[in-house]
Amino acid sequence: MSDAPTTNPCEACGEATTDALARTVRLSVDRANIDTQRLCPECFADWIDRYQSEMSGGSEDADGGSDSEIIVD
């Protein structure tokens, strides 16, 4: 059995990333896996920043921040 760390590419930038440093982002809806991405630390940080800005509902929205069109049933 080998003790060598395995490396696989980051799915965002393509850089080789060891398993110890890689982060996995999973998107699930109603317990069904929609998407899984393996990211290097830098791309993971970018993903977190993008997620926070898109989910904040702040002034960074393309539609001016209007949530009045969201319908919850």
Structural descriptors:
single chain, 1 helix, alpha+beta, two-stranded antiparallel sheet, 73 residues
Can you give the helix content as a percent range? 10-25%
The SSE string, one letter per element, is EEEEH
* DSSP helical segment count: 1
- What is the CA-CA span between the terminal residues? 53 Å
Helical/strand content category: alpha+beta
Question: Would you identify the regions where 5 or more consecutive residues have pLDDT less than 50?
Answer: none
Give the strand content. 25-35%
Mean pLDDT: 82
Strand arrangement across the biggest beta sheet = 1-2
Task: Say how many strands there are.
Answer: 4
Q: Radius of gyration over alpha carbons?
A: 17 Å
Largest β-sheet summary: 2 strands, antiparallel
Envelope shape: elongated
Protein name: Small CPxCG-related zinc finger protein
Biased composition (Acidic residues): 60-73
Pfam families: DUF7569 (PF24453)
Region (Disordered): 54-73
Which secondary structure elements does this structure contain, and how are they paired or packed?
Elements: E1 7-9, E2 16-18, E3 23-29, E4 32-39, H1 41-55
Antiparallel strand pairs: 1-2, 3-4
